[in-house]
Design goal:
2 domains, elongated, mainly alpha, single chain, 11 helices, two-stranded antiparallel ribbon
Amino acid sequence: MFFAKLILKISLGPSKNLIFVGFPDTKIQWFSYFCTASIKTLLMLKIKIISLFILLFTLNSEAQLSKVLKKITTKNLPLSNAEIISGLKEALLIGADSSIAHLSAVDGYLKDLSVKILLPPNAKSITDNLSKLPGGSKLVDDVIIRINRAAENAAKEAKPIFVNCIREMTFDDGLQILKGPNNAATQYFQLKTSLQLTELYRPKIRESLNKNLIAGISTQQSWNELTTLWNKTAGSPLGKMAGMKTVDVKLEDYMLQQALKGMFLKISEREKDIRTNAKARVTTLLKKVFGN
């Protein structure tokens, strides 16, 4: 009955007011305010939600655009000379440092079959005969252990040689390395450091070979005596008829050559890893120079 009494009259007069008949003025004003406020609140809430979505979309789009632009510009921008040199020096230093750390550790040479220093292959007949004697096998093993320990000891002092070599590298050197094969940096090291590494390793190899083993006899003395006796027999008519071959190997030079060969082999492996394996490029500069 209450709502049945409600009569809506619209006056189109000069006042253009809406007049609700059937309610007291105070209720009409309250009802009108409530409706207007609710609609206004809903509209504002809708506007805020839409604005929030637009803002989030804009921010996300800008972030994505920034990433894409950064990737494109980074990819397309040519490397500066300084970046090329710095990147290559960093790669060389990482490769050398990693190799030195590996080889200078205990058993770095001895337990790594790819670089373990053994007696010369053409001395096999000597070592085989020596191994048949009581205690002969242990004697051969001791010689090999001592030589590999000497190489490990020398490797500990090799880093400054490589650091100086890297510091002196020119832009032309760097460009040739960058465009070269997977072992181009290793070849550069061999060319620039072999003489200094030889001077570093030789005294330590020599000291190891001259240490007394049994009855005051050193490895070098044993080698000299064995090869002299062997060559005397192998060079005789009877030895030649038996197909025996003389052994003409300077033990110190051979051991030194094998020690350096092992060092450059490890550097070569590390260099190839950096060039071909993106995960091995552990710095931003390496990724920029060699790609990611």
